[in-house]
Amino acid sequence: VQLQASGGGLVQAGGFLRLSCAASGSTFSRYAMGWYRQAPGKQRELVAVISSGGSSDYTDSGKGRFAISRDNAKNTVYLQMNSLKPEDTAVHYCNARRYVLTSKIDFWGQGTQVTVSS
Q1: What is each CA distance from 74 to 23, 27, 112, in whole angstroms?
Q2: What is the CA radius of gyration of the chain?
Q3: Phi and psi at residue 42, in whole multiples of 5°?
Q4: 3-state secondary structure the chain
Q5: How far apart are alpha carbons 48 and 63 in whole angstroms?
């Protein structure tokens, strides 16, 4: 699976962005998809996940402000980010994950920069 993230940019605090991650291949619907972010000098952290069945979950970073969704017909996962804050500034990565027996299979996109100015 190859992942191509897009939609990042520069936005003022309080603004919004919609990230997209397009996946190649015919098995997209079998993967749980996630959005992670990594700010300078910090570890990569999970923001939101959506299961292959469409159930979503959020960490405190995104809860209440962000919404993850997927369109299996378009092989694309989205992250709608509202009420952005300067602390949301980071490179955002999409992830595709599935388990085969006990093995975890991960694919990562190249990242898209989100910068929120105060």
Answers
A1: 8, 12, 19
A2: 14
A3: -120, 165
A4: CCEEEECCEEEECCCCEEEEEEECCCCHHHCEEEEEEECCCCCCEEEEEECCCCCEEECCCCCCCEEEEEECCCCEEEEEECCCCHHHCEEEEEEEEEEECCEEEEEECCCEEEEEEC
A5: 8
Closest CA to 36 of 74, 85, 88: 88
**Cβ contact 80:69 at 8 Å:** yes
Among 76, 60, 75, 74, residue whose Cα is nearest residue 19: 76
How far is CA 25 from each of CA 7, 30, 72, 106, rounded to the nearest angstrom?
A: 21, 11, 11, 14
CB 116 within 8 A of CB 85: yes
Q: Encode pLDDT of 43-95 as tens digits.
A: 999 999 999 999 999 999 889 999 999 999 999 999 999 999 999 999 999 99
Q: How far apart are CA 84 and CA 116, in angstroms?
A: 7
Q: Angle at Cα 40 formed by Cα 35 and Cα 60, nearest 5°? A: 40
